[in-house]
Amino acid sequence: MRLTAVSYLNTKPFIYGLFRSDLAGIMDLSLDIPSVCAQKLLSGEADIALTPVAIIPQLPQAYLVSDYCIGATGPVKTVCVYSEVPLENIQQLYLDFHSRTSVVLVQILCKHYWKIQPVFIPASEGFENRISGNTAAVIIGDRAIGLENKYPFVYDLGEAWTIWTGLPFVFAAWISTKPIDPELSHRFNQALRFGLDHIPELLKIIPFNPAFDTEKYFRENISYELDDAKWQGLNRFLGYLAGENNYHLYRQSNLT
Questions:
Q1: At what angle do helices 100-108 and 228-242 cross, to 10 degrees?
Q2: What residues contact residue 154 under an 8 Å CB cut-off, 6+ apart?
Q3: Which of 59, 129, 149, 206 is most buried, with most CB under 10 Å away?
Q4: Which regions of 53-208 does DSSP assign to beta strands (E)?
């Protein structure tokens, strides 16, 4: 079973559960930045991917094969706009190249919620060092940890989406381009659940950061259950993304 998963801190409970499960011996798991996870699923290099959900409209059909995701019901903490000036004064905005989901999300928020029109700049390596004056940046993942102490203005995309829509946001989900055998799906979900249930054990083996509350991040900022509210939020987002085009997203039920 070829798997690819986002290499960020927020994925570690899932990875811990998978490697502690009976699936460890039958899976080939790679850890990649979100955009590479999406590309591997699109190219057929992966059977299942924990991938940014913005890839869904590009797939001929997409199956959510797990009851779990990388989501948020408020501030997500590691997907933010960082700026030296208030939101209304931002004129240029670098877009993190790690994930198209965050790129699309900030564009939707700028247009429909914040009502601002910055010039969007596709970012490249080192763009985090170009935040200055009225030039801000979207930074995601582990590179965002601690940046709220560096910049006077921080706008959390998960929080903004929830305030605007009243719905949670799904950043990444376990997706396949074909249905997964129900028995395998059940074992897969059990493994992910094990990781989430054993976060105290996980915290003992991952690097300790005195400036960052990792346990709070796992338990409060990241919301892992792909419940009905997140399903609604996901489809709301995909509706903005797809426009008039159809997308084919299926949710395998009764997995747990």
A1: 80
A2: 80, 81, 82, 83, 147, 148
A3: 59
A4: 62-72, 79-83, 92-95, 119-122, 135-140, 153-156, 169-176
Rounded CA-CA distance 109/78 in Å is 17
CATH number listed for the domain at residues 2-71+168-251: 3.40.190.10
Assigned CATH topology for domain 79-165:
D-Maltodextrin-Binding Protein; domain 2 (3.40.190)
H-helix or E-strand spanning residue 250: strand 249-251
- Longest distance between any two alpha carbons in the chain, whole Å: 55
Q: How far apart are CA 157 and CA 169, in angstroms?
A: 9
User: 213-224: buried (b, 16+ CB within 10 Å) or exposed (e) per residue?
Assistant: ebeebbeebbbb
Shortest CA distance to 79 belongs to which of 18, 151, 156, 20?
156
CA distance 12 to 45: 22
Radius of gyration of the chain (CA): 18
For residue range 50-96, what is the model confidence (pLDDT) as tens digits? 999 999 999 989 999 999 999 999 999 999 999 999 999 999 999 99
Q: How far apart are CA 163 and CA 158, in angstroms?
A: 9
Q: How many CB atoms lie within 10 A of CB 43?
A: 8
| pTM passes above 0.70 | yes
Provide the β-strand partners of residue 251: 64
b/e burial code for range 23-35 (CB count within 10 A of at least 16 → b): beeebebebbbbb
